[in-house]
Amino acid sequence: MRLSLSITVSEALKQGRQALASISETPFLDVQLLLAYALKRKKEWVLAHPDNHLSTNEFTTFEDNLSRLVSGEALPYLLGSWEFFGRSFHVTEDVLIPRPETELLIENALGFLRSHPKTRLCADIGTGSGCIAISLALEIPDLHVVAVDVSPSAIEVARVNTRKHGVDDRVTLIVADLLHPFDFRFGLICANLPYIPSERLKRLAVAEREPNLALDGGMDGLTVIRRLARELPEWLVPGGRALLEVDSSHARVLAGELTSMYSSVRTDVIKDLSGRDRVVILDRMDPQGS
User: Fold this and answer.
1) Phi, psi of 83 (to 5 degrees)
2) Is residue 126 within 8 Å of residue 192, measured between CB atoms?
């Protein structure tokens, strides 16, 4: 791919948008971010200066990065960061790219924490980049979060983010398989574990770009989630809540299994903005009624 030399911002946006039109659902937004990255400017500056000319180095950087996107590289990995819940998070190919639908889990968690001011110990299972744990810690200043991931590389990415956002004193990062190392209970457990059924994952482009460890949920998408489900009430204090992000195809199945498995829990399913089942809620009943 060769773009014309002495190109303006407006021309670069147009040509980049055309190049990405067939491979991205948001080609104009993507090319704005890509050009801002090449120019070392904010996206808003790019839109406000359509007649500015790119320097030779800026043009070369933009062209090379555009070629990488066309070849299939994910934009967040190229940029090295991605926005989640209004904040920028460092990302690498060792972690899942934060997605807007996960913000539904954050919103529900915040609602629960604000209505339960004594609940200030939370677990984030499968933390990846740490975006869930860090977002909660930033929104609830006295919250402490134990964030675990089975991947040491993911934990290192999360460590960069806890330091970047100044919450490394309240977010404890641990390499662990679910919650096995702990002998205490949590008031809130959040989990965004692998949930895409294996056969379906093979047909998805995401399988070639993001870590399968964070995507592959086994035959029906519930292999890892069921392992956690078997232990959830053990890890929750009475009156505690677990929030599990899941695939829409098995949210109701999981909620039903949890209800059948335990007599002391209530479950619910909440939908994302597109109307798909997205988060399963499990509340451990409090015998004291509080």
Assistant:
1) -85, 140
2) yes
On whether both 131 and 61 belong to a single domain, the answer is no
* 288's tokens: 């004291």
From the number of C-beta atoms within 10 Å of its C-beta (0-12, 13-18, 19+), residue 75 rates as buried
Q: What is the CATH number of the domain that holds 20?
A: 1.10.8.10
Distance CA 272, CA 279 (A): 8
Assess whether 134 and 277 both reside in one domain. yes
Q: Using one digit for the tens of pLDDT, what is the confidence trace for 103-137? A: 999 999 999 999 999 999 999 999 999 999 999 99
Strands 171-175 and 186-191: unpaired
| Contact assessment for residue 265 and residue 283, using Cβ atoms and an 8 Å cutoff | yes
Claim: this prediction has a pTM higher than 0.90 = yes
CA distance 279 to 131: 17
If one counts the domains in the chain, the total is: 2
**Same-domain pairing of 39 and 147:** no
Give the DSSP letter of residue 128.
T
The number of angstroms, rounded, from the C-alpha of 46 to the middle of its chain's C-alpha atoms is 27
pLDDT in tens, 202-218: 999 899 999 999 999 99
Q: What does the block give as tokens for 127? A: 């933390």
- What is the spatial distance between Cα 16 and Cα 24, in angstroms, rounded to a whole number? 11
Residues 242 and 132 in one domain: yes
Q: 185 exposed, middle or buried (CB, 10 Å; 0-12, 13-18, 19+)?
A: middle
Is residue 48 located within the same domain as residue 131? no
- Please indicate, yes or no, whether residues 211 and 280 belong to a single structural domain of this protein: yes
Q: Are residues 59 and 151 in the same domain?
A: no
DSSP state letter for 212: G
Q: Which residue range forms the structural domain that includes residue 35?
A: 9-73
As a whole number of angstroms, the distance between CA 287 and CA 290 comes to: 8
Give the pairing of strands 144-149 and 121-125.
parallel
